[in-house]
Predict the 3D structure of the following.
Amino acid sequence: MKIVEVIPFTKGAGEPLSYFTAQEIDSGMIVSIPLRKREVFGLVVSTGDVRDEKGMVRASPYALKKIKKIIGPSIFTQEFIEGAKEAAQFFASSPGEIIDQIVPQAIFEKYKELLTAKTERKKEAEFKLEKFAFQREFDERLIFYKTLIRTEFARENSILIILPTIEGVLFFADELSRGIERYVYSMHSGLSKKEIVVRYNKATLESHPVLILSTPYFIFMHRPDLRTLVVEQESSGAYYTQSRPYLDLRVVAEILATLRRQKIIFADTILSVETLSRHEGNELLELYPLKWRIESSAEARIIDQRAGGQEFHLIGGETKKEIRKAFLAQGRVFVYTVRRGLRPITLCNDCGTTLTCANCSSPLVLHGREKGGARVFVCHKCKIKRSADSKCQHCGGWRLVALGYGSESVYQELKNLFPETAISIIDKDTAKTPRQAKKKVKDFESKKAGILVGTELALQYLTKPLDTIVVASIDSLFNIPSFRINEKIFHMINALRQKSQRLFLIQTRLKDTRMLASALSGNIMAFYREEMKERNLFHYPPESRIIKLTLQGKKGVIEREGAEIERLLAYYAPERFSAFILKIKNLYRIHIALRLPRASWSLPTLLPNGTIDEELSKKLRALPPSVAVRVDPQDLL
C-alpha cells in the first residue's frame, strides 16, 4: 500500500493532497482522484510506503481516500510542473489551479489518446537563455519570422509562436506556412477535441523541426528541439485570463521559457509600457534596434469638434467631404466608434442623476434596434432591459436626456447623409459570433465602395487596407479612470492608422491633448516618455507591483471583511476604495490595492534579484475564496 501526494488540476484545490493506492505508481503519473463530490485529474508529486507514513496517517484529521485510477505517464515536462509552481507563487495561487487554467479541458478529456516525445534534448549543449524585445511594424516582423524559421529549421530547432486570439493564430498560419505546410501546426480552442489530439500527436512526434502557432493555452506543448518562444502581439489585453486564477499569460510564458532555457522574444508594433521599461533597464536585449516611430502613407488629421458658435454635427462637414472623396475614388470607409448602442449615458434633467441599472450601478445604454423599432435601455453588465419610457430612479422625473454617441447613432447618421451608399455595422449586438463578424467584414471588403461602422470588435477582422478611416468620437475614453487608458488609446489609434491608405481622421473636442499628437505622428518615444513620467508620479506600474484584492457581496458584509483585511495587511499600507462599477447583479464591490517594490514580489526567472515576500504570500493564500486576488491587474477599476 502506498501513500501518494497529488496536485489536483482544479480551482480551489490549494496544496497537494494525500491519497492511497495498492497499485504500482511513480511520481509524474497522471491519476483520477475523488475531490469533494467530483472526480478530477491530478499529478503525482511524491509516493511513499504506508509503513513509513503511519504517523502522518494517524495525525490526519480526515480519512485518506483511494485513487480512482491511474491514467498514465505525464505528458507534462518537469520544467512545466516547476513553471506551474513558480506561477502559483507569483499569482498567489496553487500549482493545480494554474495547470487547470492554462491547459485546455480537451487535453484532460482525451488524455489517454495523447502521445509525447522523449524529453532528452537532441543536442549535448544546453540552449542559451536569452530574452529579447522586438518592436517593429507587422510586415517587418513577418519577414523576420520567415528568416528565423528557415534558420532554426536548418539548425534542427523548432519554434513556438503564441498569439492572444484564434484570429491571430489563423492569420499567422496563413502567412508563415507557405512552402512548409507539412511542418506547421496551429493549436487553438476553435478545433474539435479529435483534431486537437491529432495535431498534438503529430506536432510532438514529428522528426523534422516544426513551427507551432497557438494561443497561450497550448504553451504546455514541448519538444526536445524547441529552441525559440515568441510572444507575438505582446501588448494585447487578451493575455489576461478572465476567470480565477487571474493570470497574465505573458508572465507564465516567460517563466516556462526561462526554465526550459529557451530564447524568448516579446514582439509587437508597439510594446507595452512595462516591456519598454524592462528594455530600458537592460532586462531585455534588442533583437534589432527598436523602432520608435510608426510610418504610414495615409495623411493623419484631427477634426476639431469644439462648437465655435456653430451647430454640432456627429459627422462634421469636413468629414462628410472626405467620405464623398473616398466614394469618388471607389474607396471603402471604416468609421470607428468607442461604444455600441444609441446613447451610452442618460441623465435626469430635473436632478442630474445618471440612469443606472437596478441590479448594477452600471449606466444604462439606450438601444434602438428592438423588434417593432421600439427603443430600450440595456445594461451591458447583466443584460437586463428596461423600457425607454422609464422614470428617474432618484426623483421620479420624466425629463430624461440621452447623451453621447454609440455605433447605432453613427450608423443612423450616416444612413441619413448617404442614403444611396451600402452601409453596415459590426459590434457585439450585430455580430454575436466570430463567424457573423467575419461574414460582415467579408461582405464589406467585397464591395468597391461602402461604409462600415464598427467598435473595437471589427479591428481583428479587418485585414485589407481601407481608403479612409474616421474615428467618430474618442473623447469619452479619456474619462475612464484607468492608469492604462492613455496606452490603450495610443495603441488603438495607431492600429487604425496603419489600416488606412489615404486618410485617417479623428473627430474630437480635445484637439490639444499631447498624447493625440504623439499618436497621430506615430511617435512612440514621445508617448513612452510622457507616460512614464505620469506613472512614476503616482507610483503605478512599471515602477511598482500592484496586487488588487476584490470583495463582492452584500454591502455590510464586504465592508466588515474589507476592514479586517486592511488590519491583516496593515504593514503593506493597503488602499481600500469602491469599484468603478459599484454594484453588479445586486452585489456590491470594493477593492484593496497594495503597492510593492517590483523586486519584492517577483521571481528569479523574471528578475535576477526578484523574491516573493513570504509573509505576504501566506496572508494572501489564507484569504477566503470570496476574495479575488489579481497580481499586476489590467486596471484598478
